[in-house]
């Protein structure tokens, strides 16, 4: 969905995206271990994605890394350490790093006191964000207080409505209901083999649905 939006509705060309699971230092109730979440993400993207990858750096940190700092890490690694990307013409070009997230996350950004003004400006002003519509979230209301970064926020409409969430997946698993076709088969096997989410009754969102970081550059593609 995000890849199609970038291809048909923007001047960017997508070069890759990273799933970046949060570390154990986040200490959110209901999360599987960081190592388990990295493994599940790797199994999920191994099912044929030609642009999604898993970045374990954030998951391996002993201290919680705010979203702004994680985006800084990707910017440093891709644009400074790697020197950007090579275009088809052989030119080196910097990559625009952006945050890919659901509308529920952007809604928290418009909630007073949840995010600092400094972090909001760093994330939305410097990097920008691609936001996927989510059932139950009023995207217009969520964006109302973020108008100063409007040019850097791209809303991706769901052409086919999908309200699958990690909360619902975990609920199904606790009730021993099938999640076939909702979660990649290798991930289901991993969950079963490792006995994950069997005791989780918190109802909080697990990180099977992790933040993604997009790498894109105008007029280039890797």
Blueprint (SSEs and pairs):
Elements: H1 2-9, E1 12-19, H2 34-45, E2 52-54, H3 57-60, H4 67-81, E3 85-86, E4 92-93, E5 96-102, H5 103-109, H6 117-127, E6 129-132, H7 139-143, E7 153-156, H8 166-174, H9 185-194, E8 212-218
Parallel strand pairs: 1-2, 5-6, 6-7
Antiparallel strand pairs: 1-8, 3-4, 5-8
Helix pairs in contact: 2-9
Identify low-pLDDT runs. Answer: 200-210, 218-222
Protein structure class? alpha/beta
Q: Percent of residues in helical segments?
A: 25-40%
Please state the CA-atom Rg, rounded to the nearest Å: 18 Å
Tell the overall outline. Answer: globular
Strand order of the largest sheet: 2-1-8-5-6-7
**What's the number of extended β-strand segments?**
8
Q: How far apart are the termini? A: 19 Å
Number of helices: 9
Can you tell me about this structure?
With 222 residues, this protein is of the alpha/beta class. The protein is built from nine helices and eight strands. The strands form two sheets. Strands 2-1-8-5-6-7 form a six-stranded mixed beta sheet, with helices on both faces. A two-stranded antiparallel ribbon has the order 3-4. α2 packs antiparallel against α9. It is globular, with a radius of gyration of 18 Å. The chain starts with a helix and ends with a strand. 28% of the residues are buried.
């Amino acid at each position: 969905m995000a890849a199609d939006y970038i291809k048909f509705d923007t001047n960017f060309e997508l070069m890759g995206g990273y799933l970046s699971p949060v570390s154990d230092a986040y200490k959110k109730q209901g999360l599987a271990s960081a190592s388990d979440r990295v493994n599940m993400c790797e199994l999920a993207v191994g099912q044929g994605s030609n642009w999604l990858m898993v970045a374990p750096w954030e998951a391996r940190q002993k201290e919680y890394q705010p979203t702004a700092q994680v985006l800084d890490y990707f910017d440093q690694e891709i644009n400074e350490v790697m020197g950007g990307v090579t275009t088809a013409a052989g030119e080196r070009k910097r990559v625009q790093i952006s945050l890919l997230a659901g509308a529920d996350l952007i809604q928290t950004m418009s909630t007073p006191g949840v995010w600092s003004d400094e972090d909001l400006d760093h994330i939305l002003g410097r990097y920008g964000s691609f936001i996927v519509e989510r059932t139950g979230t009023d995207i217009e209301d969520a964006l109302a207080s973020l108008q100063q970064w409007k040019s850097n926020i791209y809303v991706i409409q769901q052409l086919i409505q999908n309200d699958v969430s990690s909360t619902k997946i975990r609920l199904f698993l606790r009730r021993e209901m099938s999640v076939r076709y909702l979660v990649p088969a290798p991930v289901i096997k991993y969950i079963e083999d490792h006995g994950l989410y069997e005791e989780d009754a918190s109802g909080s969102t697990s990180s099977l649905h992790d933040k993604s970081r997009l790498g894109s550059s105008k007029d280039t593609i890797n």
